[in-house]
Amino acid sequence: MNAAFNPIYEPESLFNIGQGDAEYLELGTTLSNNLSCGITTVKFDTHEELIWTGNQSGYVSSFYGSTMQKYTSFRVHQTEIVHQIETNSEGIFALTSTSLRHQIRRGIPKFTHRSKNLTDALCMFALSPTRLLIAGHQPNLIDFDLTTMTEQAIIDVGEHGCAIIKKYDHSRFLCCGDVNGFITLRDPLTLHEEHKLPTHSASLNDFDVQGNYLVSCGFSDINGKLTVDRFLLVYDMRMLRLVSPIQTLIDPTLLSFLPSFVSRLAIVSPIGQLQLVDTVELTQPRVCMYQVNIASQCMSFDISSSNQAMAFGDNTGQLSLISAISSPEPQFNNYSRETEFADTPEPLPFVSITDMNFPLSSILLPKLQSGNWLSDLPKEMCEYHYRKPKPIDPIILSTMKQQGTISYAPNPRTTRRNQIPYIMENEAQSDDPEVSANTNISIFSSHAIPKHYQKIDIKYKAGTTLEFDFSEFNQTEFCGLENLLPNAYCNSMLQILFYLFPLRQALITHTCSKEVCLSCELGFLFHMLANNKSKQPCQASNFLRSFRTVPEVAALSLVISDRNPSRNINLIRLIQNWNRFILHQIHNELLDAGKRNSVPMQSVDITNLISSVSKRLEEASLAEEKEQTEDEEKDEIEQDRYQFLETEKKEDQEHEVSSEVSSLFGIKQRVVHRCLKCNEKKLKNNVVLVCNLIYPLTSPTHESCDFLKILKNSLNLEKTLSAWCDICNRFSPHNHCASVTDLPNLLAINCGLDNEKEIELLKRHLNQFNSDFIQSPVNESENAIKKQCRYGIKCTRTDCHFSHPHMRRITTSSESSNGTNGKLSDRWFPTSFKITIAGENISIDDIQNSDDDTSQIYNLQAVVYCIDNGQQRNLISFILRNGQWYIFNDFCIKNVQEDEVLSFMLDWKIPSVLFYKNKNYEWNEHDNSTYESPFTSNLLLEEILNTNVEQDVSNFMPLEPHEVPKQGDIVAMDAEFVTLNPEESEISSDGKMTTFKPRVASVARISCIRGPGNEREGVAFIDDYILTQEQVSDYLTKFSGIKPGDLDANLSNKRLTTLKRSYQKLRYLVDSGVIFVGHGLKNDFRVVNLHVPSKQIIDTVYLFHIPHHRMVSLKFLAWHFLGISIQSETHDSIEDARTSLQLYKHYLKLQEEDRVNAALNNLYDIGKQLQWKVPE
Questions:
Q1: Could you tell me the pTM of the whole model?
Q2: Which stretch is the leader sequence (predicted)?
């Protein structure tokens, strides 16, 4: 313990001067460097267990832990006061009046910044890890970049300056207070002034903001004298209004909210009195006051981030520390890193002169001034001789690329990380098969999996996908989906649902007025997929955004975070839960829309689903328990499986209702509940949309894992459970027996296989079924005759005709599953089977058996597989189209053979969801006719002038019935966007900056204006601000004109509407054959998720463009051709759309005069001279 540390806490002390038991105790005090210098600032380190102080002499000192052991002390300025200290991971920042000093915690300086703008600095605030704001009694607010150590911007804050800067983590404002009693609210991005709040009449002394409240303390002018105001002023930041002030018992000069408490703050008086105040009214208020042991006047204080300690500094240089009663040895941070201390030199050991066993060589010899020790070895014996390293793998040499003097290649992952075996020079290099075995290479590594199975990363250029060559991965007529959007794991199921034509037709023609409707969003997505004939994949961003907002989705854990790597997610269980949820959700939404009213179906009981899903999430951990409890765990797993079907069966309704989903997927069941005590029976009719396969995990005889037998047992359930019996008047065991009464047109099957027990059961079945084939001597002789493959274990070709003895030796082991050579022995589920219903009995047989008229034949239509390459997991789907199988891996689409669809390996390719179609149920796969649009002109005619928002009749006027656009009419359109997630980039191995995730944009404003032929030409009839509930990272105000609050329903004065409503208006215009005129419409429609035929788009970007030259901005085109200046301060979508329309009319005029080429040449000549900048 430090010698200056003096514990003073005694039970009889007058530290607690409030009511009731004390919440804090005083740990002790210590002195700073100089007794005559007051401590002007106190700061708890946010990364280590340190307290930092700065005094009036320019010294900065630090103290370690609750004992306040002196750690470092250094001087940052010779004459000026240290006003504030901030910490980051690299060190501290100390601010004086004219300088900013950055030093590491051990005291070594890194840089000192001085500037002519830094004249009387008083405060600073870290806006981001690389951005620091500095202000004070000076007219300038300095935006300082910590990366380049330069002043990025100078903002004029007025003659009164800015004495205090604070901001809550989730607040949308940066709060700047001046000495005259005003607090200015600024935009954290642009630092522009947004609001100004008056506080105390004479002067502002301190304030803090947390949650929804801003609280300040200061001085009032009473009869010409400055008096400490004993009322704390409280502002509600949601309304920017004063609420009831808080009266204090002491003179408040310093205050701060307690971390992690949004309604409690600490205030400090000049004489060291501390009072804890609640911002909300309590039914039984309690006075919490303490007298801190200080020598004179308290000048500074701070609260640790853990809320366990407070530090106070006075004008005599004394530092006091108090802690919570519950933490007598407080930690300043919840997760502090270890503090680095100076190394203590180890003393030499004491050795007796008579000790003959002590090794004298353990004591280092003194350094010689000249010459050598006689015991030194010769030079040649001190040289290092390294063993010869292993030669570079030929695979690396064959795939190596050279960039300048640097060569790089993909890692083939044939050895363990950071382990390269050495070979002696006299050792012969041989291809011993055991060498690869020693490196623990598995044939199931990522390079052995076909490329079109693995997740493909998109390489972006300039933050966009438009320059990426998707045609390399898709040579078919089908459209893919992008895979980098959040929750894009469901792309495989979206593709399957899209190619189920009856379901597609029902969704595309569906429309409703619900704000969030997944059926509507699926219909919009399917319309875009059906009409997109290019190789550019579509985005499912609108559907995924609506999907995340459905409460049941979060309850079922169907939303995955970007921070959670796909390796740690059970994708098999996730996609099966998604399949079951989406079918029920579509069914309920179609019923709500009033499509039909006939067949029994039930809504999902989310509570039971959540319960069942949470139980299944425990299966992986249950499999790791001891052997003696495995039987009980198997019973629980089986009950969970039954519970999924039980949830669907418990929700029957008396009056049967039907939707397109229930008519396609509905499996009708007759359920009998019989009490085993009194034999009371209850009958019930059920409809199940998805069949969950139930495996015989608890069977002691290890029943066969044949697919058809498991499917039969899963459809005809029989189990015993405990239920309430009205006759017995208590819970008693019941026999639950379900029998299929009618079969669906489409049979959806969840395969399970989401836990190790089921996978091992299927592995044993397949290995036993294939044992005769694997151990056949004929294959061994064939291997001996065939020439061995030159690539050996590294061969990735599925159709390789050479032998692979090492690969065969591994695959025949009991640790691996069946192979993927496409033979019948590698298959588990068939391409077709027949189901026969005879009363309450059901039989499922192979299609090769004799058939009769009562049987229904089901053919395989689609399969979803989970692919695991050892590093990440992804989902792919196989879909049958016109008799040909295709693999859909996001935007990678190619045709495959049937053997590739049916064969799988349980080590990396696991079936998850199957879809079978009834042979008697036909649909026209060649039907490319357009569907009747569900949207009408009422969407546009319902627009009304809202008196509660800012309106300019010259810019906006709703359509009259005679003004509704028709086919061929011109409409000018423009959209503005905001950024939800910023762009993420990395430096690749060749030194180039690569964007691996572009910014995620969201449409914020859509404007459409009347075109030529209308008496109100140029007046907007659509000007929608899109309501958003997601976090916006950048409003892009300079380029979009959108300001913080414009998209907030509580603050906005704009015409707010939902994205779905605006989308429906645009869809009506597209379906009506309207021609859109705009600038850069291709990207606008892409973000909106709307496909518009190219014949309905007139883009001024391409009208005024010479091939193989740069694109010209709208601002430059407007200045050059129209002589007008636009976008001077910010963008406005109505102005941009009107300008695009004028440019199009000017282009038509040039075309009539046959001056288009001359005008374009002149445009590019002037643009190059001006460097494409519009003159001021």
A1: 0.57
A2: none
